[in-house]
Amino acid sequence: MCEEFIILKDDILFLKGDWTIENINCIKKQIPSNANIKKLDASMIEQIDTFGGIIIFNYFKSLEIIDKNKKVIDILNIISQHYATPPKPVKTSSLLKLSNFLENIIQNLLYFLAFIGELVINVFTHIKDFEFGILIKDIENNGVKALGIVGILSFLIGVVITYQSAAQLRQFGANIFIVNLLGISIVRELGPVIVAIIISGRSASAYTASIGLMKVQEEIDNLKVLGISPYVLLVLPKIISMMFVLPALIIYADTVSIIGGMIVSKISLNIAFVEFIHRLRHILNLETLFAGLIKGPFFGLFIAIIGTSEGFKVQEKPESIGEHVIASVVKSISSVIMIDAIFSVVYKWIGI
Amino acid sequence: MKDLTSIYKDRVIHENLNLKVYKGEILAIVGGSGTGKTTLLKELILLKVPKQGCILFEGKKIDSSNINHMRNKIGVMFQSAALFNSLNVGENIVYVIRKKHKIDYELAREMAIVKIKLAGLGESAYWLYPSELSGGMKKKAALARALATDPKVLFLDEPTSGLDPISADEFDKTIKKLSKILGITVIMITHNVPSFLIADRIAIIANKSIIFCDTPDKITSVDNPWVKELLSTTIGKRFLHGN
After folding, report:
1. What is the tally of structural domains in chain B?
2. Which of A27, A116, A346, B211 is 20 to 30 A removed from A238 (C-alpha atoms)?
3. Do A87 and B110 touch (CB under 8 A)?
4. Model confidence pLDDT, tens digit, residues A259-288
5. Mutate to test the interface with B, among A82, A314, A323, A325 (most CBs of B within 10 A)
């Protein structure tokens, strides 16, 4: 229920009460339309703030104010001095958006190549800055500390694939083929990709955030001033550790996934562990193992380069860290899928 | 505030602080590093609950049951500006206005422009994101947002920290002008000696208590080593001589 804020008497509009933000909606409802109003009396206004002021300014600025309420006059002066029509956002055409998008992709690609170039030059010129301790620490962070999450997720993937396939295979009496299905799909495809995606989310983001923060806090600049190459000190150990850690994690994930599948096979398809392992030994030849494992160093290389290069892109404002962490995860996961697709084509060519 | 005692990790920060702030005045809260100025500000706006004592707002004791009564009438500018990074400057202000009061979007936008210009920014700042602003512009945008709903009391935490002397002076003048024309009570935590000039009163925190609370011209009477050292600096001497 609104109190009365506006009274129209003859051609004079009397304003009263508290013209403040709390009452704005009530006041707006009472604004008379198409009335023959010539003068404004604001003497009965008890309180006014800029919200009340802007309503008077917007609706009654052409009227003559017959009572000089100092508060009202002061507020109206403030409003008239600082009022401006809200600017419209600059609209960009679809063509411009598309060209910006393409330009962005090209710039990103060029930056990525320039980053690799800079890295290679620094490796040749500043190899003395390499610290073995940092490499060991990175292997611990990316490998040892990731064992838990990689193990749990891989086990569950083995369980899920076996459960989902078991019902279908049972219908055709092809229970034993669960070993073929699981062995090939996990070792050749799913194991490496799942590990790479987990590590992309876990380590690429961490690389971007940590290097980005060093950039914001001018630690990178300080390293350069001290004549130490941040590429050799920070990037190189991360790349080497990733290239070693990924294949190791793939072997671990494959093993855990197959154990998960083996347990479910025993429960739902009644395949004994010995039988399962015996068949698995026949299926998993060296070629299949190689086809899965060789992807690891490539995935690791790209995840590390993308994660660190995004960190170096961070500007001197902390808020840009978030943007680059997102970009780093998206780009590294996309690169994992693309590399996997390239491997599939190559395997097809060479007949693996 | 009445009999305010604060404890941080078993360390007493303040003991039995009593301070009255009058309507329309600018009060500067001053103290050395580690005296708990920011802690005090957070307790005044009830982001931190004091160990003992209470905060009174418009004569009423404020606690969790009526905290919104106070929060609807105050504006806070944090030291880091604390703008929402995903929103541009205009949206930062519009969001606050529309979240607190059900006001239509167009009016909120018009008000946002007025507040942006009042804080000393150009209207083009409306569409800029915090990442596109300089330190001084960020502070002004944060001030505009703190003023969004015409607060009765404005809390400022180190408003001029990180600004160059010219921007700091300009910012102080803006605060003084806004307090005068909008009748806002300002409580300002500051280290910056020139900012003392815009204050109606200065409260000095030292030795866990308020050792002085009076007009700036009486600051020379304070018998405290930190205050004496502060006033003996070049900038302190200038302040004493009023230039």
Report:
1. 2
2. A346
3. no
4. 999 999 999 888 899 999 999 988 888 888
5. A82
